[in-house]
Design goal:
This protein is an alpha/beta fold and 266 residues long. The chain has a single domain (9-262), classed as 3-Layer(aba) Sandwich (Rossmann fold). Helix content is 35%, strand content 17%. The chain contains ten helices and eight strands. It has an eight-stranded mixed sheet, sandwiched between helices. Helix 6 links the parallel strand 2 (70-74) and strand 3 (115-119). Helix 5 runs parallel beside helix 10. The protein binds zinc ion (ZN). Residues 183-184, 186-187, 251, 254, 256-258 line the site of zinc ion.
């Protein structure tokens, strides 16, 4: 319906909501407290999402539907048959095709109001340097801790907030790390949790999608300025259906964000 609507940077940089945006986002704009100002903040935001599997796909879907302005997707590799029990953005016909490409094509079908770029690459510091210019939020939905740690170190170094989302079996977690306020992922997990090995854990799509949608809402609230985002780790166990919150603490001895990093041993 809105083919080619955001055809120029003038459109993207408009300080007012366009008619098409008011129509597209009418239902969320009808939510008490969520104003055009919030919607414009969301539209003016640029997000990098690392990982578009069952978890990251649900997050990306939530952000694109809600009207994020620009989305950079990074995910290395092609879709395989065992991935299909949890994908929201790709199906059987995509087996053997780049997951970053499949995700971006599907998201562009959903909305032409969002600028989306796909990068079929592994997460490295060099790649992040290339694609993170102007990014307001990094979303970590990778399935392995080495890449999560690269994302975290980069985010801390560049002073960019990092939204962490992860799942393992029936357990899932999400937390927003804001530089200078909350500590970082390394404060929470100084060691790499071995039982969260990418090839070892079980996955139900519904678990991925649930925590993915919760993470998407955290990102929407944070970027739009709507409501409060607590400095907590959300932990959802779908075996028991219990949701718990843990206060995030900054570790002064953290080698990534703590005082030792700055040579200020306490
Ligand atoms: Zn830290």
């Amino acid at each position: 319906m809105f083919e080619g609507f955001l055809s120029t940077m003038d459109d993207l940089n408009s300080v007012n909501m366009l008619k098409e945006e008011k129509i597209r986002y009418a239902r969320q704009l009808s939510h008490p407290g969520f104003t055009e100002k919030n919607q414009l903040k969301l539209r003016n935001a640029k997000v990098l999402i690392a990982g578009v599997g069952g978890l990251g796909g649900a997050i990306a879907h939530g952000l694109v539907c809600a009207g994020i302005g620009r989305l950079e997707i990074i995910h290395y590799g092609v879709l395989e048959e065992p991935d299909l029990n949890r994908q929201t953005l790709m199906g059987e016909n995509g087996v053997g095709i780049s997951r970053a490409l499949l995700a971006s094509e599907r998201l562009k079908e959903i909305s032409s109001l969002v600028q989306i770029e796909a990068h079929d690459k592994a997460v490295t510091e060099k790649v992040l340097e290339e694609i993170c210019d102007g990014v307001d939020l990094i979303i970590d939905a990778r399935h392995n801790f080495p890449e999560r740690k690269i994302l975290n170190t980069f985010a801390v170094t560049k002073n960019i907030p990092l939204l962490f989302a992860a799942m393992n079996g029936m357990e899932s977690q999400a937390a927003l790390f804001v530089p200078e306020k909350t500590g970082c992922l390394n404060c929470l997990y100084p060691e790499n949790p071995q039982d969260w090995d990418p090839f070892g854990f079980s996955v139900f799509g519904a678990v991925s999608h649930t925590i993915g949608s919760m993470a998407a809402m955290i990102a929407i609230k944070f970027l739009s300025g709507y409501g409060e985002v607590d400095e907590t780790l959300i932990s959802l166990n779908m075996e028991t259906m219990k949701l718990r919150h843990f206060k995030l603490h900054k570790d002064p001895s953290c080698l990534i964000c703590g005082c030792e990093r700055h040579g200020l041993r306490i």
